[in-house]
Write a structure and sequence with these properties.
The protein is an alpha+beta fold. It contains 16 helices and 17 strands.
Length: 506
C-alpha cells in the first residue's frame, strides 16, 4: 500500500482543520457561496455574535434572505458580476435575527474548489457605526446649509486659505455671483476690505494670534462691493472643524444703515447741544438784564410800604403791595433761572467752610419768620449741641430756606413745621417735617425735576401754590455737589411731608 497518498491526505486534512480554526475565530464574517447563491459555509461563532443566526439558519439558504428588501436587487447584480469578473465589493444592510438592521461592508473573490465548482469567498465587516456617523454628519451639513441659506447674515467658510462655502446673503452684500467668488483665495477676500481699515484689522489679527485675550473675534470695518459701494460690516470669526479639517467660519452683518443712523444721531445731538447752549446763554443773559431793574422795583416798592403805608390809603397802597409781591416773585424766578443756568453749565462751585449747622438753621428760621407768621404756622427747632461740617454756607442756606418756604406754602393756616438736626458715624441729617397737604406717590416722582411744579388748587387746600418749580431741582443739585442726598417721604394727601437733607461727614 502506497504511503505518500495517505501522508498527503493527512496533510490536507490538517490544513483544512487549521484554516477552519482560523476562519471560525475571525472577527469578520466569512461566508462561502456557490453559483446558485446558496450559503455553503460560514464562521458560525462570529455570525451568531453579530447577527444572531446559527449555522442551521443560514447554511443551504440564499444570502438574500437576511438582506434589506431595498438592497436585494443590487446584491444579485453584484454577485453575478463577482462570479463573472472574479471579485466584488459592496455595502449592504443585513437584518439581525431580532429584526434591526446592520450595515456590512462586503469584499469577495471567487475560486474553484477541488470539485471544479466556482465559489465566492466573502469577508464582511460591521460598518454600522461608521454609517450612522456619516448619516449624522450628512444631516448636520444639510441642517447647516438650510440655516445658512435662510440666514439674514452672510456666512463664509475658509479652509486651507480657500473659500469652501458662501451663502446667498454674503453674495448679495458684496454683489458677486457664486461662480465668481468660489475660486477665490483668502488674499482675494482681503481685497474687499477698505484700504484705511486694513492695517487695523491686521494688527487685531496678529494680537489675537499672539494670545491677547482682550482682542475679541469680532471686527467692525468698511468694505467695498463689486460696484464700488462702500459698506460697513460686523464680522464674527470662529475656528471650526469642517469635513474633518480645521477651518474658519465668518458671519457677516451689513450695518451700513445702522452706521448712517448713528452718524445722523451724532449730528442731531451736536445741533441739540448747540441749541441747548444758546438757550442757556439766552436765559443767563436775559436774567442778568432783568435782575437789575427788578431789584430796583422790588426795593422801591418795599421802601414805599415801609415808609408811606400810613400816608397812603385805599387803592394806592394796594397797587404798591401788588407791585411788591409781583416783584418778589419775579426776583425769585430770575434767581432760580440764573442758578439753573450755572448748574447746567457745570460752573457751580462750592466755597467750603466749617459751619455750625444749628446756627445756620436758626438764621434760616429768622428769614422765613415773617411768611410763617402771616399764615399762622409755627416752626419748631430744639437743638442745643453744635454740629460742625464743611459746607458752602450760602448754598445750604438756600436749600433749607427753599424747603421751609415750600412747607409754609403747602401747609394750611394754623399748621406746624418741625426741624430736626441729627448725626451718626457717617451722616448728618436735617429733617423738615410739616403738617401740610402731603404728596401722592405720583407727585413724589415729579419732585426734583426741572420745572417739576405740582399743580394744586390753592383755595381747596388753603395753600399758596405759586412758584417756578425750579427750587427743588436746584436744591438737589446743590446737595449732590456736597456728596449728599435729599429725600422725601409722605403717606399721602393731607398727611404731611418730610424732606431730609443727608450730608456726609467726610
Amino acid at each position: 500500500m502506497p504511503i505518500e497518498p495517505e501522508r498527503n491526505e493527512k496533510k490536507l486534512e490538517g490544513s483544512e482543520e487549521k484554516y477552519k480554526l482560523i476562519l471560525d475565530n475571525a472577527n469578520d464574517l466569512i461566508t462561502i457561496i456557490n453559483e446558485k447563491f446558496i450559503h455553503e459555509y460560514l464562521n458560525e461563532k462570529t455570525y451568531f455574535e453579530l447577527l444572531g443566526y446559527s449555522e442551521e439558519d443560514i447554511i443551504g439558504r440564499t444570502p438574500l434572505v437576511p438582506l434589506h428588501p431595498d438592497d436585494q436587487k443590487k446584491a444579485i447584480k453584484i454577485l453575478k458580476d463577482g462570479f463573472k469578473y472574479g471579485k466584488g465589493h459592496n455595502e449592504m444592510r443585513v437584518r439581525h435575527k431580532d429584526g434591526h438592521y446592520l450595515w456590512l461592508e462586503n469584499k469577495g473573490t471567487t475560486f474553484i474548489d477541488i470539485d471544479g465548482q466556482k465559489k465566492a469567498f466573502i469577508i464582511s465587516r460591521d460598518i454600522t457605526e461608521r454609517k450612522n456617523t456619516e448619516r449624522q454628519l450628512k444631516e448636520s451639513e444639510e441642517l447647516f446649509r438650510t440655516i445658512a441659506e435662510q440666514s439674514s447674515m452672510g456666512i463664509l467658510i475658509v479652509q486651507d486659505d480657500q473659500i469652501k462655502y458662501v451663502n446667498d446673503t454674503f453674495l448679495k452684500i458684496f454683489e458677486y455671483s457664486y461662480e465668481e467668488i468660489t475660486s477665490w483665495s483668502k488674499d482675494d477676500l482681503v481685497k474687499l476690505i477698505h484700504p484705511e481699515d486694513l492695517p487695523i484689522l491686521r494688527e487685531q489679527r496678529e494680537q489675537r494670534r499672539s494670545g491677547n485675550l482682550n482682542i475679541k473675534p469680532y471686527s467692525s470695518y468698511r468694505v467695498v462691493t463689486k460696484s464700488g459701494i462702500e459698506k460697513w460690516i460686523d464680522q464674527f470669526s470662529k475656528d471650526i472643524l469642517y469635513k474633518g479639517k480645521d477651518a474658519e467660519l465668518a458671519t457677516i452683518i451689513d450695518i451700513s444703515e445702522k452706521k448712517e443712523t448713528e452718524r445722523l444721531i451724532v449730528e442731531e445731538n451736536k445741533k441739540l447741544l448747540e441749541l441747548s447752549q444758546i438757550r442757556r446763554d439766552l436765559i443767563s443773559r436775559v436774567s442778568h438784564e432783568l435782575k437789575t431793574p427788578l431789584s430796583s422795583i422790588y426795593a422801591a416798592s418795599q421802601f414805599l410800604l415801609q415808609e408811606f403805608r400810613e400816608q397812603l390809603e385805599g387803592s394806592p397802597i394796594k397797587f404798591i403791595e401788588m407791585i411788591h409781591k409781583s416783584g418778589q416773585k419775579l426776583k425769585q424766578l430770575i434767581e432760580d433761572l440764573l442758578d439753573m443756568s450755572i448748574v447746567e453749565s457745570g460752573k457751580l462751585k462750592l466755597g467750603l467752610q466749617n459751619e455750625d449747622l444749628g446756627e445756620l438753621i436758626k438764621e434760616c428760621m429768622n428769614d422765613i419768620e415773617y411768611r410763617a407768621n402771616i399764615r399762622k404756622i409755627r416752626v419748631y427747632f430744639d437743638h442745643l449741641n453744635p454740629i460742625f461740617l464743611e459746607i458752602d454756607k450760602l448754598r445750604i442756606e438756600q436749600v433749607i430756606i427753599n424747603l421751609l418756604s415750600n412747607s409754609i406754602k403747602f401747609t394750611p393756616t394754623g399748621g406746624a413745621i418741625y426741624i430736626e438736626l441729627t448725626e451718626d458715624d457717617k451722616w448728618i441729617e436735617i429733617s423738615i417735617r410739616d403738617t401740610g397737604v402731603g404728596l401722592t406717590k405720583k407727585e413724589q416722582k415729579m419732585l426734583f425735576q426741572k420745572f417739576g411744579k405740582i399743580e394744586r388748587k390753592g383755595k381747596k387746600f388753603d395753600i399758596d401754590s405759586e412758584g417756578s418749580g425750579l427750587g427743588l431741582y436746584i436744591s438737589k443739585e446743590i446737595v449732590e455737589l456736597h456728596k449728599g442726598m435729599i429725600l422725601v417721604d409722605s403717606k399721602g394727601r393731607n398727611k404731611g411731608s418730610t424732606f431730609i437733607i443727608k450730608l456726609p461727614k467726610t
